Structures are given as C-alpha cells and as structure tokens.
Amino acid sequence: MKQERVAQPLEARLAKKLDAARKYRGTIRFFTNHGSLLSLADHRSEARAALRRAQRLLATTTRTIAAIRMVLRQREARRRAAMSPRVAICDAFGRDCEQAVAVAWCESRMQTTAQNGQYLGLFQMGSSERRLFGHGRTAQQQSIAAHKYFVGSGRDWSPWSCKPWYAY
Known about the structure:
Layout: H1 10-33, H2 36-39, H3 44-81, H4 85-93, H5 97-108, E1 115-116, E2 119-120, H6 127-133, H7 139-152
Antiparallel strand pairs: 1-2
Helix pairs in contact: 1-3, 4-5, 4-7, 6-7
C-alpha cells in the first residue's frame, strides 16, 4: 500500500532546513578546524568526501531556505494587503489604534479610495505628505504612511482636521 506524504507547513519545513544547514555548517567547521584529517592518508578520502557532501548539501539547503523565506514573505504580504482597514490601522498604530480608527473614520469613513481634491486615502493625506511618508492602494500601506506622519508630527493629531475626540 502506497503511503501518502502529508504536506508540512512551510514554517515547519523552514525550521527543518535551518537545522540541517546548521548541521552542515558544523561539519564544514569541523574539517576547517581539523585540516589534518583532509591530508592524512588514513582518512583523506572519507574526510574529503564528507566535506564535499556537507558543502554541496549546505548550498542546496541554503537555496531552499531562501525560496521558503520568499514564499513566506509573499504570503505575509498578501495577508497584510487583504487586511480590513480597522485591522491594518491597529496593526500600524498599536497602542494608538482606537484614536487612529476614529481619525480615519472621520476623514474617509474608512475607505482607502476616498478622495477630496489632493487628499487621498484612509487618512486623507496630501500630496506632499504622501511624497514624504508614502502611500499605497491597500489599507496597510496607507496606515503605515499615516503612522510615519503621526510619529513625525510628535505623536499628536495636529496634522489632521479630524481629531479622535470629535464625536462622529
């Protein structure tokens, strides 16, 4: 009976590959510190074969680690891009989440596509602010840019016409 392979989560695969790379580096380090094993006639062929194998496996494993990390970064980017405006704002602003949500609600009714003249996005940032702090299509990108602006302004809401304490 054919045994089915269960797909491991990428994080688990990455952990195994990192452990393997550590092992291969240890083997290479061992032969670097015990170079006489590579030249003594008794052990030369086995030692050189073990060193070459560790170097080859480390190179392959390193490429696999880079590929897995890239897939994980892409997955995280897709997850963040799909965040709701409230989640994205709270992710960017942390402890100032509720205040930032109140400002975004007042400025744009939590719409990433909101526009009022030159002012765009969740936080209705102007063209010069977008140039300085960034902007983007997603709630996450707009929230990160607004947080940079918020921090740059001294962690107060003075740049925005809407304040968190306004009852909207």
